[in-house]
Amino acid sequence: MRKNKKLWIIIGILILIGLAFLALHKNNKVSYTSSNNKSTTSGSTKNQTSSSTSTPTTTSNNSTSSNAKTSTTATTNTTSQQNITLISPTGSFVSNHNPSLSNSALSTEQSTCNTNPGVSCNITFTNTSTNNTISLGSKTTNSSGSAYWTWTLQGVGLTQGNWKITATSSYNQESKSVNDSLLLSVN
């Protein structure tokens, strides 16, 4: 009879430990190591809609300066760190490959970057003759894996000339970049 009582006490303690572990695990308080020795944290996904102001950045000969600000609204997706296979970005990196600085209707652009949900995406423009680089600024993709920008040529500081368009998705220490098959020809 005493053996059965001890057995039931041990089983009860194990059940309580298991329930405590599940509760902590559900609240993102427990991490574990998978067989490939990378730390993984289980977690939930939170969708947030926020208004943000991104500051485009110009880079020339390793110096950085800020230009005019571009106001955007983005839906972001915050996820716990997970092991994912990063997808190369796709999408309409610019809405018009032949914009005009003199016509305000033709100087507004929309850009889309599609990749994994919850990763960072950035679109940059590099002048083919001066190698100056201008960035739209990184955004976190939403739950569908998309990031959106609405911007103007003047607002980000693009000048006349041909610009190589590069989209880069990044997560943890990994990044993947894709060049648009067409140049942005600003006139």
Description:
The chain has 187 residues and is of the alpha+beta class. Helices cover 18% and strands 42% of the residues. It has 3 helices and 14 strands. It has helices spanning 2-26, 104-107, 153-156; strands at 31-33, 39-41, 46-54, 57-60, 63-66, 70-78, 108-114, 120-127, 133-135, 139-140, 146-152, 161-171, 174-179, 184-186. Strands 4, 5, 8, 9, 10, 12, 13 and 14 form an 8-stranded antiparallel β-sheet that branches. A two-stranded antiparallel ribbon has the order 1-2. Strands 3-6 form a two-stranded antiparallel ribbon. Residues 29-79 have low confidence and may be disordered.
In short:
The chain is built from three helices and 14 strands.
SSE blueprint:
Blueprint: H1 2-26, E1 31-33, E2 39-41, E3 46-54, E4 57-60, E5 63-66, E6 70-78, H2 104-107, E7 108-114, E8 120-127, E9 133-135, E10 139-140, E11 146-152, H3 153-156, E12 161-171, E13 174-179, E14 184-186
Antiparallel strand pairs: 1-2, 3-6, 4-5, 4-9, 7-11, 8-9, 8-10, 8-12, 12-13, 12-14
Query: How many beta-strand runs?
Result: 14
* Order of helix and strand elements from N to C terminus: HEEEEEEHEEEEEHEEE
- The amount of helix comes to 10-25%
- Mean pLDDT, to the nearest integer, reads 76
Radius of gyration: 24 Å
Q: Specify the biggest β-sheet.
A: 8 strands, antiparallel
**Count of helical regions:** 3
Distance between the termini: 92 Å
Please tell me what the overall shape is. rod-shaped
How does the helix and strand content classify structurally?
Answer: alpha+beta
pLDDT < 50 stretches: 29-79
Strand content: 35-45%
